[in-house]
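Batch job 17 of 40 flagged for manual review because the log was empty.
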Amino acid sequence: MLFGPPGHLYVYFTYGMHYCANVACEPEGTGAGVLLRAIVPEHGVSEMVARRGVEEPHLLCSGPARLAQALGIGREQNGLPVWEAPLAILPRAGTDGGGAAVPRIATSPRIGVRGGDQKPWRFVDADSRFLSRPLPRPRTGSGGAAAARVGKNR
C-alpha cells in the first residue's frame, strides 16, 4: 500500500505487537508515506479511552502504536483512503484567519532512526504537549548545531 495511490493508509504490524499507520503521499508506484505519530485527541475521546484503557489525554495518541490503538486502526484499515478511515486530516481550526494561533513548526531527526540518515524529516507543532517524544534540546558549546530547528508555519 505504501506504493499505492496517495491518501491511502498503509497499516503494518511492528515488533510483533503493535499496529502503526502511514499515509501514502507520492504518486502510485513510488513508496513514500507520512507516519502518523501523534494527534491531539479532540473528537471521540471516550472511544479512545475505552480502546486504550487510559484517561490521561496526552497518553491517548502520543506515539504511533498508541495512536493506532486509540483510533481502532488495524490490519482491516490497510488500504483505506483517509477520507474513509477512522480519522480525518483537517486544517487546524483558525489557521484560515479564524483567530487561533498558527503553530510553531519544528523539525528534528526521525525517532528510532540511527546511523547515517539523520535528516530532519520529523515535523511537529513545537508547542504541543501531545508529541510522542519531546524535541531534542539544542546542543550548545563550540560549533554544535541545533538538533531541532524551529520556524514559522511552512
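Reviewer: the log was empty due to a logging misconfiguration, but the result itself is present. The radius of gyration is 17 Å. Unflagging and moving on to job 18.
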